[in-house]
Amino acid sequence: xxxxxxxxxxxxxxxxxxxxxxxxxxxxxxxxxxxxxxxxxxxxxxxxxxxxxxxxxxxxxxxxxxxxxxxxxxxxxxxxxxxxxxxxxxxxxxxxxxxxxxxxxxxxxxxxxxx
Length: 115
Prior knowledge:
alpha+beta, Alpha-Beta Plaits, 5-stranded antiparallel β-sheet, 3 helices, 29% helix
């Protein structure tokens, strides 16, 4: 199952690339992350990368994702970043510094198909 991961922050200074590099450190995700191109809007010549696509395998992929993002948020100097995770069915969760301590429960409740 694929999920889309996007980053919302008040500063766009490479946060998506940072999250991608962070997740690539996990053996579970190595080679499974791909940049997604946003659709060009009317009047735009092209599109910008706005999300990552992550192919989640079976087993403990959600647990690995939760642990990795928990550690990522713990090392952030700017707690204003929010990470959105959405599946192809439109189920979505937003993770930030405030709710990251409950990320495993949030992911499990939202993406029950992974169990």
